[in-house]
Fold:
Amino acid sequence: MSSINLTNASIPFDARVYLGNPTLTPAIAFAGIYSLFLIIFGAHLLRRFSRIHVIASIFCVIRIGAFAVRGIIINSDWTSSGLLTADMIMMAAGFVAILDMMYQSLTQWLEFRVAPVHSNDLVSSAIRFKRLMHIVLVISAVLSIMGATAQSSATTPDDLDSAKDRVRIAALIYLGATLAMLALSTMVSLSVGGASAPLSARPGWVIVLCTIISLVRLTYAVIVAGKTPVELSWYCLSIMPEICVLIVFAWPGVAELYAKPREEMRMQSWELEKGAGGVYNDAAMGGVQPPVQGHPRYPPMYAPNPPPVNQCPGPPTVAELYAKPQQEMMMQAWEAEKGSRVAYNDAAMRAVQPLTLAHPRYPHV
Structure:
């Protein structure tokens, strides 16, 4: 790699020189590779929504656009500072999507899987200050965009030096954020692995692997900041680590390691349905049933063996027509018992059970 030669007061503009005189074939090939990843992540999203796959898809779109712009620059007889700026912005700032995808995976694992059964000060602090990392990544992305814009439009050596400093600072922030994710995921994985709780440390070690791969790319970015890269080393040390991280998250079942537990999703869906006051429709809810087995966040609230559905009673008396429905009183008492988080005591509650009779406000559950 070599620095841009500045011998005159102004810099003669040539976009291909800024990019290290790249060739067209690798640009087309990698645009196709990222397009393939976009299809894979899109297929994952069609099967089950995941923020991880959404972020990965956005990153693939950015990279496809960057390589398309690069191909235009290479294949054109004329050069445009606008195209060069677009290419440099998408290449420099686009990597924040990879870091955000890894951090999103880490925080989801800590919040949904680790915290309910194995919470400690480290896990609680990581969840509490998770937005801080997003702010840091946004700041580094803004610096990358500012540096890339200034670098492509620099007309004096001083302007170019200032642009290089911004790019280098952004790369250092990326590097520091990745090191923080590596330390956090390693410590939590070791803590989970040595705990007696039935919790797998595999998701944490996946993040450790991805952060180590990303460190290769970010170290190279810090070294070549403000310099003209060599095409072969740029593809090997900058693009291939991104491909490796995408392969990890595109692998079937990896994103599910960081997804919200299905028991919790079912519980939230059932509570929303109950709170809406609508008629419970098991087919429409996709088989959603209130969980019988306990969950770390939701203790058992239902009798393991619910009573059989009773037959509808006879016609009500005149007094019963104006009284509060018995089912509603039972439901209120049962909800008070559920809210208190005490052990379910059928005898003390005088046989208070979740409703088994259909009611306009509280359908059969």
Remarks:
- The mean pLDDT is 75.
- The two ends are 69 Å apart (CA to CA).
